[in-house]
Design a protein that fits this description.
Length: about 170
């Protein structure tokens, strides 16, 4: 494999990197150490051994510096920019309708919904194309403007005696 090194540093880049060697952030410190070692001509494997990290990490930092410059010293969020949801917006009304029904209508021997059960029924009813998670159902409910805790309160039973029975249990 061909060794990878950073491009030649300008004086201002070198000064900036050396100034950040005193950074309180371990992330910035390690990246500065990687960049300066590479500028001295050290190979990625030797740098990794010296710093106690993986050699691929060193190669990634070098590659990123060659593309982005000093922006490589800024720590960015690891979180995805957007959480994918498996329940499309056009299926949200059907999800609301589904929760207003009893699980027994779908052949489940339970009276109350759980998030995993809703996810399972969404798949069987065609609201999602592939199995989904409880977290995805919770995000879909949030897009409806309903929290799961609140959803449990507006789900009602078709039982004519439901209101009387509920009063007895909650009183």
């Amino acid at each position: 494999m061909q060794p990878i090194f950073i491009r030649p540093l300008t004086e201002s880049e070198r000064a900036h990197i050396e100034a950040h060697l005193r950074s309180g952030s371990a992330f910035v410190l390690r990246r500065c150490q990687i960049l300066l070692a590479s500028a001295r001509g050290e190979r990625a494997i030797a740098i990794a051994r010296q710093l106690g990290c993986d050699d691929q990490t060193v190669r990634n930092v070098i590659k990123d510096f060659n593309e982005q410059g000093l922006d490589v010293l800024k720590k960015e969020s690891c979180r995805p920019h957007r959480l994918r949801t498996s329940i499309a917006d056009e299926n949200l009304p059907a999800l609301r309708d589904l929760l207003h029904r009893s699980p027994r209508d779908f052949g489940i021997e339970r009276n109350l919904w759980s998030l995993p059960l809703v996810a399972q029924i969404c798949l069987s009813q065609g609201l999602v194309a592939a199995p989904t998670t409880a977290a995805s159902v919770r995000r879909a409910l949030k897009r409806l403007g309903v929290s799961w805790k609140r959803a449990k309160h507006w789900i009602t039973s078709p039982d004519p005696q439901y209101a009387r029975k509920k009063r007895l249990v909650t009183a």
